[in-house]
Structures are given as C-alpha cells and as structure tokens.
C-alpha cells in the first residue's frame, strides 16, 4: 500500500446519544497509509467513540465512514477483520487459554486464506515482537497487567492488519513500560490510530495528533501544532512548558495542571 494512499476517511460524522446529546459533531478526517496518529482530548471528548465509528463497530447518526474508498458498512465483518485490528481498553480473556493460544486468536480472520505454517509464523512473529517468548506457555491469567497489555497487542499484531486501532494502550502500565510499548508500536509497519491520555508521551510516538473536545476536532496536525501552548491550555486547562534536557539538550515538553495560564 502506497504511503500517500487514503486508507480510511470519514465525512461530516455526527452521533447523537440516547439523551439527545451530540457526542460526535461533524467530524471529518482522512487517514493515509503508514501514519501514526494519536487521538487526545479530555474525558468525554469522544475519543473512544470516534474509534468505534472509524472501525465500523458503531454506526453514526449521519455522515459516512469509508475504508479504501468504499462505505465501511458494506464490507463484511470477516473482510474488515482481515484489514483492521482493535486493541480495546479492556476485554474479556478466557483464563484457561495459554498466552500463545490467546495470541493465535488474531489469525481467525485468515484461516481460509493462509496455510497452517503461515499462521504459525505470524503468531511467532507477534510473540517475539512483544517480548513474550518466555511466557507463551503460561496461562493468560498468570500475567501481570503490563504483560496482558503486551499479549493484547500481540494478538492484534498477529491479525496482520493494515490499520490498527489502540484504545489507551498504555493503560495500567508503569512509566517505562508505557514508553517501551509506544516505541514498539511506533516501529510497526502498520497504520495506527491510538487514543492516548498522557500528553508527554505523544510527541515521540505520533507524527500526527487529532485533538477532540466535545465531539469536535479542535486541531489536526503535527504534535508541535496540535499541542501548542494555546491549544493545550484551551482544551486541557494545562500549561505546556518547554525545557531542555540537562544532558542531551533535547527539547522536552512538560504538561502541568494550573489555575493560571503562563507564557514561557
């Protein structure tokens, strides 16, 4: 797939909740092959809801979502599953499964297309990428929260998707594990849309940031633009402070909650 090719798009997408509240308000965007996109915003901004629409798991009140130029609703679930994978915030995992058996579930959409040896190779690749080699025979219920996150990511990678949706992939992880898993995702040869809460982790991961507020896109562009001091204050009521690393000299962004906006 060519890097400039539009893989996914939505146009004037609205979603009205059961109490008549507008939860997605005229959202339009295009996703090109190979992009690593972070979706950020305050709680209730519509981040996870937008992902569910873009992945075809939920239908908008109006507007459209297209996958490779065609309406996503006309693509069969099995064909969609061959093209996109979803790593949700939380999912039920059968505790009797081994780690390897759980990861192998990612190959279900490809059973009719691939022989057994090719399935095994994809499963082993995902296990190795996520550093689960020594754990693959263990029961999934014996894993720590961070290990389960890696197993969920491995299951999604084993699906061999063109497009990967991640809803808070760093949830329940310690700081080093958060950095490691985002570095891993960054290196995947896959288009990624990830909902991320920690703004400080976004710049090293994403080449594009979509900022949502009250169901609307407030900003959509490179991290330096979407996470400008003004936008960070207006949307999150936080100050972005730029500092230089004392050793490397690398420019770092620190996000600080405050009652007053500062300009540094």
Can you describe what's shown?
The protein has helices at 47-54, 77-83, 99-104, 116-129, 145-158, 175-186, 202-205, 223-226, 229-236; strands spanning 6-16, 22-32, 36-40, 62-67, 70-71, 84-87, 163-167, 191-195, 208-213, 216-221, 238-244, 251-257. The protein folds into two domains: 6-227, P-loop containing nucleotide triphosphate hydrolases (Rossmann fold); 228-264, no CATH class. It is α/β, with parallel strands linked by helices. 29% of the residues lie in helices and 28% in strands. It has nine helices and twelve strands. The termini are far apart. The longest helix is centred in the middle third of the chain and has 14 residues, at 116-129. The strands form three sheets. A six-stranded mixed sheet has the order 6-7-8-3-9-10, with helices on both faces. Strands 2-1-4-5 form a four-stranded antiparallel sheet, covered by helices on one side. Strands 11-12 form a two-stranded antiparallel ribbon.
Question: Main traits of this protein?
Answer:
264 residues, alpha/beta, Rossmann fold, 2 domains, six-stranded mixed β-sheet, 9 helices
Distance between the termini: 43 Å
Contiguous low-pLDDT stretches (5 residues minimum) are none
The backbone outline, from C-alpha atoms, is globular
The tally of beta strands, per DSSP, is: 12
What's the CATH C level of the largest domain? Answer: Alpha Beta
H/E element sequence? EEEHEEHEHHHEHEHEEHHEE
Helix content: 25-40%
Query: What is the CATH superfamily classification of the largest domain?
Result: P-loop containing nucleotide triphosphate hydrolases
Q: Structural class of the helices, strands and pairings?
A: alpha/beta
Number of domains: 2
Main sheet properties:
6 strands, mixed
Order of the strands making up the biggest sheet: 6-7-8-3-9-10
Mean pLDDT: 90
How many separate helices?
Answer: 9
Provide the β-strand percentage band: 25-35%
| Architecture per CATH nomenclature, i.e. the level-2 architecture of the largest domain | 3-Layer(aba) Sandwich
């Amino acid at each position: 797939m060519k890097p400039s090719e539009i893989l996914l798009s939505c146009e004037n997408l609205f979603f009205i909740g059961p109490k008549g509240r507008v939860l997605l308000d005229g959202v339009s965007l295009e996703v090109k092959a190979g992009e690593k996109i972070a979706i950020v915003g305050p709680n209730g901004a519509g981040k996870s809801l937008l992902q569910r629409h873009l992945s075809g798991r939920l239908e908008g009140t109006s507007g459209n979502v297209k996958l490779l130029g065609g309406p996503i609703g006309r693509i069969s679930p099995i064909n969609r599953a061959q093209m996109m994978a979803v790593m949700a915030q939380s999912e039920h995992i059968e505790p009797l499964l081994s780690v390897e058996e759980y990861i192998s579930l990612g190959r279900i959409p490809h059973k009719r297309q691939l022989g057994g040896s090719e399935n095994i190779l994809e499963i082993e690749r995902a296990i190795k990428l996520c550093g689960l080699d020594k754990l693959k025979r263990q029961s999934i219920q014996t894993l720590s929260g961070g290990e389960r996150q890696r197993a969920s990511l491995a299951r999604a990678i084993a699906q061999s998707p063109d497009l990967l949706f991640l809803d808070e992939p760093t949830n329940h992880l310690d700081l080093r594990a958060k950095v490691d898993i985002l570095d891993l995702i960054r290196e995947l040869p896959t288009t990624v849309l990830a909902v991320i809460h920690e703004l400080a982790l976004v710049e090293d991961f994403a080449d594009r940031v979509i900022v949502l507020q009250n169901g609307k896109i407030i900003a959509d562009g490179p991290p330096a633009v979407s996470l400008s001091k003004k936008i960070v204050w207006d949307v999150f009521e936080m100050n972005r402070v730029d500092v230089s690393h004392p050793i490397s000299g690398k420019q770092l962004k620190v996000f600080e909650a405050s009652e007053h906006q500062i300009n540094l």
